[in-house]
Structure formats: structure tokens, C-alpha cells
Amino acid sequence: MILRDLHTHTLYSHGRNTPAEMYAAAEAAGLRLYGFSEHSPRPLGYTYSHEYRDQLEAHLDDYVREVAALKARAAADPSRCQVLFGMEFDWLDAEEAFVRAAATAYDFDYRLGSVHYLGTWGFDDKLEDWDISQEACEHHYRAYFATWRKMIASGLFDIAAHPDIIKLFSIQKFHVWLAKADSLALVRTALAELRDAGMSMEISSAGLRKPCREIYPCPTFLRLAAELGVPVSFASDAHGIEEVGHAFPQLANYARAFGISESVWFEHGQMRREAF
């Protein structure tokens, strides 16, 4: 049974509920550990169609203060769902100094590393951007994993979030690409680097709610991770109270099908392990 959700958001970015409401949902779902991982602000030039940069920057201090208060109250009562203070960071190739400063700005329990941008293009923004050929898609897939490897090599992060999110709007073409020997070799190399960096890989139910309608990561990807002994963490990527712990029984069965029986989390950057 999965009792830890390590990827969640609030109304301080593009979520729908306050930190207190999200925590209450975690307790109602029977979770034992809840990780707040609000987005970190991005620099100008990295912009979505429905941008939340100003909202996030205006309320970052509120987020930090409210999560700290929830964490302290939970810590005073071990019977309650405990709280971890995290954040999700976009790895931006041309903005390493910005990302590094943001990732070291607070005493985080853990840091999620994500790739949402290739250059300044937010590839998970618009479906119409992916009305392109197989060849063009494969160029983007290779660029994504090259960027993913740089994110890992930075040494800044504990968990790699939604590892194959690049499939979001082009899942059939992604699976065609992933079946190729050189693609499998690229992903295998990236996963080995992730393991050797002391990171874990997220298994997320968010993809089930997205156009790809598939768990992150896909079965081929998870099989490679299991063969390499990559630690895994579980997440819903919840943006509202109804999504906290979403489809966790399905995630547990999915992971067990590949021989995975242990999940990890991080407290003050230290990996913890437990069977699920």
C-alpha cells in the first residue's frame, strides 16, 4: 500500500486549493507522509499560455510559511500524516545559475527535478505544437533526454519527476521511438546516471489524467529502471484535493508487476526506504 505522495501543488501556482486544504485531503486519504512540492519560479522568457509566474512569485513566502506551520503541527503528533517541505524545479539549460540559486534558497527536505522546456519552448503546453512528423517528434525526444541527463548531472535534485512527460501529446509516436535499440540505450544510460547520482525516479498517476492516458513512466521505461535497480518514489502530481493519492492502488500493482516492492522518500536530502 502506497502511503506517501511526494508531488503536489497548491493555488499558489496553478493548483486549486490551499496548502491546508491539500494536507486535509492527504489525511482523509489515509496517507502517512505528504510532500509539498510547489513549483519554483521561472525566469522571464519561459512562459506558458496560461502563465502563473506572477502568482507564484507573489506568494512564495506564503507557501514556505504555511508548509512550515503544517509540518510543525504534524511533527508534534506522530499519529498524524507527516509533512515534507519540497519544491519542483524546472531544469533550464541556459539558466543554471538561476536554478541553482532557487534550489538552495531554503532548507528543503527534497527537490524534484523536472524538464518541461527545450530551450524556451514549453513542450507540454499546447497539443497543436505536436502536429508534426515522426522524425520531428523523435528529434524532440532525443533533446528531452539529453536535457534530462544534464538535470541529473547538476547534482541539485533528489527525485526525477514524471520521467517520460515528453510523451504527453504524442504517445503513439513516442512508443515507436522508444522501441528502437538506440532509444532504449539512451534511456538506459540516463537511468543508470540517475541511480548513480543517488536520485529516485517518480512513478506518477498524473499521466492517467492527461492526454497520454498512461502512467509516468511507461512500461518499457519502468522495466529498464527495475533492471538497473533505480529507486522509485510515488506521486499523484495533485493540483486539487480530489487528486491527492490518485490511483495509488493502481500504481502499486504496476510497480509490483516489475518486481518493485520498495519506495523511497527524502528527509533533509537523506534517502529513506520502506516496503509498500
Task: Summarize the structure in words.
- This protein has eight helices and eleven strands.
- The protein is an alpha/beta fold and about 280 residues long.
- The protein has a single domain, classed as Metal-dependent hydrolases (TIM Barrel), CATH 3.20.20.140.
- Strands 1-2-3-4-7-8-9 form a seven-stranded parallel β-sheet. Strands 5-6 form a two-stranded antiparallel ribbon. A two-stranded antiparallel ribbon has the order 10-11.
- Helix 6 (about 180-195) packs across helix 7 (about 220-230).
- It is globular and about 55 Å long.
- This is Histidinol-phosphatase.
Strand content: 15-25%
Average pLDDT value?
97
Q: Could you tell me the radius of gyration in angstroms? A: 18 Å
Count of domain modules: 1
Biggest β-sheet: count, sense, barrel? 7 strands, parallel
The rounded distance between the terminal residues' Cα atoms is 5 Å
GO molecular function: histidinol-phosphatase activity
Protein name: Histidinol-phosphatase
Pathway: Amino-acid biosynthesis; L-histidine biosynthesis; L-histidine from 5-phospho-alpha-D-ribose 1-diphosphate: step 8/9
Domain PHP: 5-205
Name its key features.
276 residues, alpha/beta, TIM Barrel, 7-stranded parallel sheet, two-stranded antiparallel sheet, 8 helices, 11 strands, globular
Entry summary:
The protein is an alpha/beta fold and 276 residues long.
Task: Spell out the blueprint of helices and strands.
Blueprint: E1 4-5, H1 19-28, E2 33-39, H2 53-75, E3 82-90, H3 96-103, E4 110-114, E5 117-118, E6 121-122, H4 134-153, E7 159-160, H5 171-178, H6 181-196, E8 200-204, H7 219-228, E9 232-235, H8 248-256, E10 262-267, E11 270-275
Parallel strand pairs: 1-2, 2-3, 3-4, 4-7, 7-8, 8-9
Antiparallel strand pairs: 5-6, 10-11
